[in-house]
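Try this one yourself first.
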């Protein structure tokens, strides 16, 4: 054990004008002592986060040698800076506090104006990663979100993730693992699943967040793990207004989305609106609705965004001449609504035609739809290219439009 002592000078021959040095004027001294009361605490200068150690105090010039222990000036204190018992047993917090150190003080019970202090450094340790964490990562080898439980002593259990990669999509993939934390907050970890072992390097922030990067050859991935709040694992706790940002790729095209939506306690998603950039092809203020499932005990849930706000454009021929149109319509769980279309038919333009209808998409991506506008119904075959793009062909006998 490294012991740090504080040198204290006492003066027994000082002038009687110094009341603290004059036993007759120091009612707290007692016992006929000479000189001023002095308190010298002893203990280590650094401890590991989450560990315990005991401090002692040497009190001189009084028969009452009892002291009151404080952390950062407060008796007992809390989990943020650590706690200390009446006997001087100190337990460090799991995370170093802001600044990385605390002050341990022993106050004389004979004279509360007399005290001594030690500055104690709190170092990161395995205990700094402890409890249940939610995480996500993305990069060149895939994208994932999940949760795991860290023991505080280097073991990872109850890991589950949803993983989307070039090798396939894996739902509720279970894993275990291990980790190690250095005194400076940098560490390493492994996740082990039936897909193999994934190696990570990470750093712990003072907020408790863990920033991690993939550390296998060929990796270019990064992500974040956050301590999970157990009181937030329900739809009612998540109800409210949310903003989001998503990024990824499809068919070699980089796609990013940003938007917002509202979620109620029953899992209904409403008022969704997003902007998308798909390899330079930009769509703005696209609306959507959706649903969210109940949240499991480990925080895992699922949500479906049902896209809407599709732009429509077509060109073709009808009896009597050409037909061109542009417009927009909202798609939601088989229903088409709030559509509006501008048409130029054989040189006769018509603006603001209201559209509504129904649609059905098969697992192959082929679908059918009926759209009603201006009292007539159009039958359409469509082929989805992505969640935001489809080609369609009107198949009514009097019209050839696509």
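Now uncover the answer:
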């Amino acid at each position: 054990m490294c012991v740090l002592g504080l040198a204290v000078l006492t003066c027994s021959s000082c002038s009687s004008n110094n009341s603290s040095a004059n036993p007759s004027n120091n009612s707290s001294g007692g016992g006929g002592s000479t000189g001023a009361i002095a308190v010298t605490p002893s203990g280590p200068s650094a401890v590991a986060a989450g560990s315990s150690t005991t401090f002692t105090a040497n009190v001189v010039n009084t028969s009452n040698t009892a002291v009151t222990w404080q952390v950062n000036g407060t008796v007992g204190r809390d989990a943020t800076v650590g706690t200390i018992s009446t006997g001087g047993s100190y337990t460090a917090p799991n995370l170093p506090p802001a600044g990385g150190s605390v002050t341990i003080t022993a106050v004389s019970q004979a004279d509360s104006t007399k005290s001594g202090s030690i500055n104690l450094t709190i170092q990161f340790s395995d205990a700094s990663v402890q409890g249940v964490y939610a995480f996500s990562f993305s990069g060149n080898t895939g994208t994932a979100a999940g949760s795991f439980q860290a023991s505080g002593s280097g073991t990872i259990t109850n890991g589950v993730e949803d993983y989307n990669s070039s090798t396939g999509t894996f739902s509720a993939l279970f894993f275990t693992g291990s980790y190690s934390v250095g005194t400076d907050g940098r560490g390493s970890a492994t996740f082990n699943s039936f897909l193999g072992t994934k190696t990570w390097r990470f750093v712990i922030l003072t907020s408790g967040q863990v920033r991690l990067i993939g550390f296998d050859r060929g990796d270019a991935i990064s992500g974040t793990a956050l301590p999970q709040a157990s009181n937030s694992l329900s739809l009612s706790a998540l109800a409210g207004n949310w903003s989001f940002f998503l990024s990824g790729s499809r068919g070699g095209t980089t796609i990013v989305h940003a938007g917002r939506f509202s979620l109620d306690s029953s899992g209904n998603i409403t008022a969704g609106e997003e902007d998308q950039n798909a390899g330079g092809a930009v769509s703005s203020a696209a609306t959507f609705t959706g649903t969210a499932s109940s949240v499991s005990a480990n925080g895992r849930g699922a949500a479906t965004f049902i896209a809407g706000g599709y732009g429509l454009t077509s060109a073709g021929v009808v009896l009597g001449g050409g037909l061109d149109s542009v417009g927009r319509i909202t798609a939601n769980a088989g229903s088409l609504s709030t559509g509006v279309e501008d048409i130029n038919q054989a040189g006769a333009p018509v603006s603001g035609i209201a559209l509504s209808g129904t649609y059905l998409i098969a697992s192959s991506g082929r679908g059918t739809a009926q759209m009603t506008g201006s009292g007539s119904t159009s039958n359409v075959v469509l082929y989805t290219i992505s969640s935001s793009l489809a080609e369609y062909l009107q198949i009514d006998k009097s019209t050839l439009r696509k």
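Discussion: The first strand starts at residue 38 and ends at 42. Residues 1-33 have pLDDT under 50 and may be disordered.
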